[in-house]
Q: What sequence folds into this?
């Protein structure tokens, strides 16, 4: 009885998530269609009518694609849940009597593999058909699969010890296992954050220190005026995969880095690049990396606490086709079936991220002596070159956008400084 209720509650949330997403996307698509070809005033010096039409088509194509891809993966999850396939696979594996740890590892690896194979045709289509058509793709099939294999190897290197550790804590450490597991998880997260800039990211891209020249001089002058040192300013060969341009801040403590994509360097002037740099520096100076890390830790502590409550609850496992509670079943349910319950937290995370973007923009303007023009033109050029949607539906951007829309950002930049 209880397991039927659990299943019904899951299905209700599942359809709620799907229909919300569908409604938002359709709203957004019709909003774009009605405005395609028009250029909002703030974009006018940079974006012409033809680009606006192309951006609208790009947004519509990506929306249709995400509906198809998202719909299909939801359908597969549903087939697995309602068809009892999670439990059937588990029972089949149990017949080999592999022992708790090996069984758990193989089960989780197998389920992850199945779902990544299901997503593969969509990933290929997105990259080699859609991105290609709009002139963004620069990846070869060889590089695509090489990336996949590297990511797989990386998840094995990080995931296997993590899973074994989790199983160990669940089995051996009594009622406080979840706190110990959380501690170990946090430690691994810190290590990964520390290793990311110097060990993990270079597996996928080449990072070269920003060469000497007028840009470097500008940035160094900016850093000196802020009395601040950043050890690493790097240029990344983003162009080997895509024409999309970006910049980001990464790392903690001594391995802090600001990374500019080579694609960014091609289109922006030195003043604009310095402004983008100042924005990224703003993320660091306003402690956004730490804040995100701490928010992530609070989130994962909550997840471990909930897992602890759910671990012995047999009806939960029955609802999803398992015979009895097991560690690996709980982790698979967390990975594949918790989405509909956490989906509604997404707008909160997006709102925090947008707040950080405003703060970084404000910092950049102050650092540049109050001059907002280079940052504004950099953002407008980036938006044009990335074919960003000029007409997002307000509800859609509220839920999905990690950055404020461009008109919002420019308006905030143009407000008088306090
Ligand atoms: Zn930012």
A:
């Amino acid at each position: 009885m209880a397991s039927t209720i659990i299943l019904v509650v899951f299905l209700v949330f599942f359809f709620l998530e799907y229909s919300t997403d569908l409604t938002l996307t359709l709203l957004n698509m019709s909003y774009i269609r009605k405005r395609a070809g028009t250029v909002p005033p703030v974009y006018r010096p940079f974006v012409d009518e033809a680009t606006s039409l192309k951006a609208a088509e790009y947004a519509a194509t990506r929306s249709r694609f995400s509906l198809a891809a998202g719909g299909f993966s939801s359908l597969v999850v549903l087939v697995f849940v309602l068809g009892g396939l999670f439990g059937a696979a588990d029972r089949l594996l149990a017949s080999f009597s592999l022992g708790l740890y090996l069984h758990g590892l193989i089960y989780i690896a197998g389920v992850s593999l199945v779902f990544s194979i299901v997503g593969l045709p969509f990933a290929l289509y997105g990259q080699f058909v859609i991105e290609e058509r709009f002139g963004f793709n620069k990846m070869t099939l060889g590089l695509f699969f090489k990336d996949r294999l590297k990511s797989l190897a990386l998840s094995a290197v990080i995931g296997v010890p993590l899973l074994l550790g989790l199983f160990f804590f669940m089995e051996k450490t009594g009622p406080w296992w979840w706190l110990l597991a959380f501690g170990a998880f946090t430690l691994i997260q810190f290590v990964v954050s520390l290793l990311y800039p110097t060990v993990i990211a270079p597996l996928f891209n080449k990072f070269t220190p920003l060469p000497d020249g007028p840009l470097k001089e500008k940035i160094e002058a900016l850093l000196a005026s802020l009395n601040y040192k950043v050890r690493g300013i790097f240029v990344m060969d983003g162009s080997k995969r895509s024409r999309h341009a970006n910049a980001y801040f990464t790392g903690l403590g001594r391995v802090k880095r600001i990374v500019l994509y080579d694609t960014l360097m091609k289109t922006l002037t030195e003043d604009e690049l310095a402004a983008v740099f100042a924005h990224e520096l703003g993320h660091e100076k306003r402690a956004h990396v730490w804040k995100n890390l701490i928010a992530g830790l609070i989130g994962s502590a909550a997840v471990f606490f909930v897992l602890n409550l759910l671990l012995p609850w047999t009806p939960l496992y029955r609802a999803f086709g398992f015979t009895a509670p097991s560690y690996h079943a709980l982790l698979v349910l967390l990975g594949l079936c918790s989405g509909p319950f956490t989906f509604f937290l997404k707008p909160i995370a997006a709102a925090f991220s947008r707040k950080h973007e405003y703060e970084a923009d404000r910092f950049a303007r102050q650092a540049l002596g109050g001059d907002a023009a280079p940052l504004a033109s950099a953002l407008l050029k980036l938006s044009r070159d990335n074919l960003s949607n000029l007409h997002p539906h307000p509800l859609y951007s509220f839920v999905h956008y990690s950055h404020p829309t461009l008109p919002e950002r420019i308006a905030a930049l143009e407000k008088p400084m306090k």
